Amino acid sequence: PAGGQGPNAGIQDGHTLGTALARGAEKKGEMHSELENYATRRYAAAQSAIATTQQQLRILTAQNRVQKSIRNLGIAALSAIPKIQRKALSKTAQQDALQLAHSELHHSTD
Question: Is there a contact between 9 and 45 (Cβ–Cβ < 8 Å)?
Fold first, then answer.
């Protein structure tokens, strides 16, 4: 998924599953019910992530000249807002740090 939703979904899955398992262990005989509830909640979250990703991809891969112009103007307008600039720079710095750590990890094991 776009926008970092994949890792976030994985973290949410782990937390939600852990909660469901703990509740199921507390309530003897209700493990199956808790796991069914978990599956229902996570399916809804996955569907939402897929829908958001599809919308983002449609916008980013627009082929129509008018759609491209609107997209580009919107990006330019949003990128002029200082709060959005700071958030984008922060995310870029985080991604750079992760890539560096990943690179160093692979070099240290070679």
Answer: yes
First to last CA, the chain: 31
Can you tell me the distance from the alpha carbon of 24 to that of 14, in angstroms, rounded to the nearest whole number? 15
Which tokens go with 78? 């949003």
C-alpha span between 23 and 32 (Å, rounded): 11
3-state secondary structure 77-94: HHHCCHHHHHHHHHHHHH
Specify the 3-state DSSP secondary structure of 27: coil
Mean pLDDT of 33-45: 86
Question: Does pTM top 0.85 for this prediction?
Answer: no
Q: Residue 21: is its pLDDT beyond 70?
A: yes
User: Tens digits of per-residue pLDDT, 62-84?
Assistant: 888 998 899 899 888 888 888 88
> Can you tell me the distance from the alpha carbon of 70 to that of 77, in angstroms, rounded to the nearest whole number?
10
Computed on alpha carbons and rounded to an integer, the radius of gyration of the chain in Å comes to 20
